[in-house]
Hints:
The protein has an eight-stranded antiparallel barrel with strand order 2-3-4-5-6-7-8-9.
Amino acid sequence: MTTYQPNLRAFVTVLVIVSIGIVALIEKVPLSAEYESYRSLIVPSTIVSIVWVLWIIFDRFLWKWRVSRLFGLSNQPDLNGIWVGDIDRLGEENPHQFKMEIYQTFSKISIATRTEHSSSHSIRAYFLSDQHNKRFELVNLWSCRTKKRQKTEAFEEFKGLSQIAILDDNGSVILEDYYFTDRIPPTAGKSRLVRSP
């Protein structure tokens, strides 16, 4: 598995087609004589404006649509939402409730987690994919704030790394999170999460 890279060839192709369409439309728009000399400025600025707006719409919404997948513009899974399950630290045999919130656009992804005594947020999250962009995993470097293990009111902070497998279970997506931390002493564990309805 390697870091997922979007299909830049498909992006450039769509960008060129959209730009040609915009130029064709602008050329058909009649301008008064006083504005005709500005056509050479109007065309590029209009193309940039429209492409920018289209990028914002694509980045937030269109990448999830089936048509984007058909044209090869987006293969990454849509994991937006709240995921719930149990987390179990290795060697403790004491699973407890775990909630993961994923915020995702086409170009960015961030993760926040919460248990009864701790919360974390991603420092950096990114997708890994196989060579055909069919199987994905999510890597999350995170920072956590939790109550100390001793029965005190004090908190401690540490960092962790998760490798999250994205699995298909009879049409439902399941996330299997394997993690380890730099906590003293170091901890590791796993969680199994389903999307909250």
